[in-house]
Specification:
The protein has 11 helices and no strands. By secondary structure, the protein is mainly α. The longest helix is centred in the middle third of the chain and has 28 residues. The relative contact order is 0.14.
Length: 199
């Protein structure tokens, strides 16, 4: 999946530089809101398919929210710090970091709010977060703990990085991983909009 995303990105850059002027690209740009709604609909399906979700919430109570809350706060503060180091406004850098690894939605959402350049930065930074977390989970699990693996993965802890969680962490961490991914995925569009408009 990561290789497919990188290949799609490379093809898109190549098309933008040298491709013919097709109507399909104009149509996609004009209807990007509907594509975002379709992505959010798919998130809703993903949440609904976790049939044991509410039972796990009852079992762990407020404890289940500690990990996502830490991820959100840490990502937001990290984004602001990186913005200060690179000269980007804090609202844009925090919004980019609050993609929490969900590069497709985050890049498109912030691109609509702040322009194509910021959308590209957001896409790439969240794609790199997913790639780095995928390859660092084994090390994090060995040298830190299972919950630091979830923190690195962010919103991807319920899907693309979940196989690594299953392999290198324990059963309870896998449950937390799925729950964290659902919660973070639902929060991504809200957090991006909040950071960009409020900070």
């Amino acid at each position: 999946m990561v290789l497919f995303a990188l290949a799609a990105l490379g093809l898109g850059i190549g098309y933008g530089l040298w491709g013919p002027d097709w109507g399909l690209v104009d149509w996609l740009a004009a209807n990007s809101d509907y594509i975002l709604y379709l992505l959010m609909f798919s998130v809703g399906i993903s949440v609904g398919m976790h049939h044991g979700l509410w039972n796990k919430l009852k079992q762990y109570h407020i404890k289940i929210l500690v990990v996502p809350a830490g991820i959100v706060v840490g990502s937001m503060l990290g984004g602001i710090l990186c913005g200060l180091l690179t000269g980007h406004p804090p609202n844009e850098s925090a919004a980019a970091a609050c993609g929490l690894g969900w590069y497709s939605l985050a890049g498109a959402t912030l691109g609509k709010l702040a322009g194509a350049q910021m959308g590209s930065i957001t896409f790439l930074s969240n794609l790199m977060r997913e790639i780095f977390s995928f390859f660092s989970i084994a090390w994090l699990s060995k040298h830190l703990n299972a919950y630091s693996c979830i923190a690195a993965a962010g919103a991807t802890s319920e899907d693309t990085t979940l196989p690594m969680m299953i392999r290198y962490t324990n059963d309870e961490a896998v449950v937390f991983s799925v729950m964290n991914g659902v919660i973070c995925s639902a929060l991504v569009p809200v957090l991006i909009s909040f950071c960009y408009r409020i900070l």
